[in-house]
Queue: 2 jobs
Job 1
Amino acid sequence: METTLWRIRPHTVPVWALACARCGASWLESTGRFRVNANGRRHDVWLIYRCPGCGARRKQPVHRRVRADAAEVPLDAYRRDDPVLAESVAFALAPGVPVAYAVERPPLPESGPLRVRIVQPRFCAVRWDRFLAAELGWSRRRVQAAWRARTLCVEPACRASAPVRDGQCFSVLELRCRPSPSPPRSG
Ligand SMILES: [Zn+2]
């Protein structure tokens, strides 16, 4: 069976799940900016977050007291607020925080089998059952039933509540929905 690539792209970066000390908003968003302080040869680096409610700012440590010549510390990139680095740091600071995403993929075939490999350079922390329900247009119950019946398989195997990871594949034996009588609606 041919394998199709589906690319999961985040719309944004993970938030910092920390309540704002000023207004009580329940999370802070990255500004994409760093703060770098030099103390002799040692440097502190923070990523700056902002409250979406009141604009209060708060720093989250990225490096503490690192030497300027340490290979893993791209000080120049921090100083110029390199956007790719800011994105990468925001993901590293909040592993497992769900992120809104889009899926770039070809249209689903009308019927027949499907095998897909996931490409997800940034971990978006979406559950498999929720992801498949949204992308296949199935109910969550149908996804879970197919999962149990193994007409829908994920490799390497995991639980339906586990997050989708880069490089995993899934296959569906038959995409077409069997017509089922819809329940009568009242009102
Ligand atoms: Zn606030």
Job 2
Amino acid sequence: MRYSRLLLPTTKETPNDASLASHIYLIRAGLIQSVGGSGLYNFLPLGKKILDKVRAVVKEELDKAGCQEVSLSFVTPSALWDESGRLEKYGKELLRFKDRKDNDFILGPTHEEMMVNLVRQTVKSYKQLPLNLYQINLKFRDEIRPRFGLMRGREFLMKDGYSFHSSTEDMLREFALMEETYKKIFTRLGLEFRVVEADSGAIGGSGSKEFMVLADSGEDTIVVCNDCEYGANIEAATCQPKVYDTHTACKTVIKKALYDEGKSLCVGFVLPQDAELQETKACNSVDANDLIECDTQQSPSIVVIEETLGAAVDPNAFDAEEINYADIVAVQEGDTCAMCGGALRYTKGIEAGHIFQLGTRYSEPMGTHFLDENGKTQPMVMGTYGIGVSRLLAAIIEQNHDDKGCIWTKESAPFALQIIISNIKDDAQVALGEKLYEAMLSLGVDVLLDDRKDRFGAKMSDYELLGVPHAVVIGKNLSEGKVEFVTRKGMSSIEVDADGILDFLRDTL
Ligand SMILES: [Zn+2]
């Protein structure tokens, strides 16, 4: 590609609403463009090219693992969400609309119902299972406050996959395969990440894992071990149980638990004085939809005691209808790892993938059955697997940038090499630039030739902003038979003989 022909509107101006590096650089490098500041973005040519490269890595690894790509209708009839019970539960983030015949439709943020509907029409026998189907296409979530560019936009490109099985055992096998496949994807994209245990809500169990890209700007707090692989979302993190005696000072935190159809209950959570209530754990312990502040004068109808307190608390001291024990405390920095005894610490991450053991949550209400070997009707057991593909672009930059711009990783870079002709009026520089460009193209190297009439300084600023991993700078030193080979990460450069540059590139790239 010739830079002079490229639509790449780079700018020095930082967008008003941008605070994250990825948001700033994706716009400043001319990769994406905001549409009316409403959490919607256009992808410009090189942004689209990067998105396609990331998409290709995701697709290649999934296909290798035996998954099959489909493309579901973008618009979903509301009736399908009615069947699963999600239409009622989902709030205003679900975009709902009517067609000219007054039929109800939605734009789905995920497509469990659509995929279940596809499979129930086509799969009838255990012989057709297992199946792992996925799609990579646009999803929509009507965020109340879209922000951070591609990190939390309203429209996003997502890979969502769904597997269907004749037994829980087989679903667990696929879940483990997807974990390994996701590791390959994130490793190929050059990301530093952790696989963490996540809160799986009302479904329970350890059936949910998140893939967290480590970055200080991440929105999620994750707990990791200094000595082993252990990692968990703060909402799911556990540590080695502490031992408490009967002299332990305790406190009771009162909350109002909210349930379907406007029901609510007053709940008291009993925990050690120096511990902190983990709201998601607490919410799950009473199967509530949400916890909110409560008038503390009210006496609780349910009391949940932190399980590690055990005999340190006398349950008869409470006048409640129900007393339960559960893990409701937030893991603190310095707590002991339950796996290895090492020290736990907090770090920040960006959620880039999530795999989930779904069981029969959708297949039962939606009547997705198969005939087993004995001719008996059974609901299919499902898993679901997501990757935020457009969000990955932001995550790659959050982890790989400096104060000048993006530093793309090898498999995500818009080009493998940029050739910069310093002075387009210098015939010798142009001749070498053109020769190298043609040679790289014939070798199959994805190369960008900066053949613009602009000043050298502007060209270098754009190079740093765009973040192609390597560049050859053909400048004044060509008169002494030298060119420069630049590596974007660290902006280190070495002098190479102009005569030998082709061989050097052949060996290096
Ligand atoms: Zn550990």
